[in-house]
Design goal:
With 210 residues, the protein is of the alpha/beta class. It is built from 7 helices and 8 strands, in the order H-E-H-H-E-H-E-E-E-H-E-H-E-E-H.
């Protein structure tokens, strides 16, 4: 699938996995023969977006990854990914499915919502914007209502929601980039805009000089 994706122009890649196959098998969410691990899935997608986002290939894209487990493990996963082209969602979210039933989904659902909102927002950030979800579930060890936990999660480069009077909103459009406070590399929207500008510039130069 990733090889096929190399031939397609996309902005965001969202793998629909949030934990190891063994845990998905226990809830009948995958076949009993599945052997994938979330670390391998996320590493594969990260490698893909880095490979495609080069001056030579010019198919820039970002990854909206996810992980469901304890908060301490989520921070560790974010630290391992640690790149401005990668964001990591860690909360479950619920929404009504096509059968009219409210379903609580794993964080891949949360990541997909973030990607969809950024695509629709184009040059606008999803920070402080309300997500189209009924509710969300924090991982063990994290309280989205605690200012201290929010600050810690932002420092860890995690993408998450908080409760507000109007619903559930994104605290920040955070990437897993954790080297410094770079306003571009720490923002999904800024990286997306930078990609659009650089690709447009490359295309215009090719048209003018090739």
């Amino acid at each position: 699938a990733m090889t096929d994706l190399e031939g397609i122009d996309v902005n965001f890649v969202v793998p629909l996995f949030s934990r190891d196959a063994s845990k998905d098998i226990a809830e009948s969410l995958t076949e009993s023969s599945s052997t994938y691990t979330i670390d391998a899935v996320n590493a594969l997608i990260k490698s893909h977006v880095l490979k495609m986002s080069t001056a030579k290939i010019k198919k820039h894209r970002s990854a909206f990854l996810s992980f469901w487990g304890s908060y301490s493990d989520a921070k560790e996963k974010s630290g391992e990914l640690a790149h401005y082209r990668v964001s990591l969602a860690m909360q479950k979210t619920s929404q009504v499915n096509s059968a009219g039933t409210t379903v609580v989904q794993l964080p891949w659902h949360t990541a997909a919502i973030a990607a969809g909102m950024q695509a629709a927002g184009f040059y606008k950030s999803i920070t402080n914007k309300y997500a189209n979800v009924i509710s969300f579930v924090d991982p063990t060890g994290f309280d989205s209502g605690s200012p201290g936990d929010i600050e810690d999660a932002l420092d860890a480069g995690l993408l998450f929601l908080e409760k507000s009077v109007g619903g559930s909103k994104w605290v920040c459009d955070q990437t897993t980039y954790g080297v410094d406070t770079n306003f571009v590399y720490n923002s999904i929207q800024a990286v997306y805009d930078a990609d659009l500008v650089s690709l447009d510039l490359a295309a215009s130069f090719q048209t003018a000089f090739v």
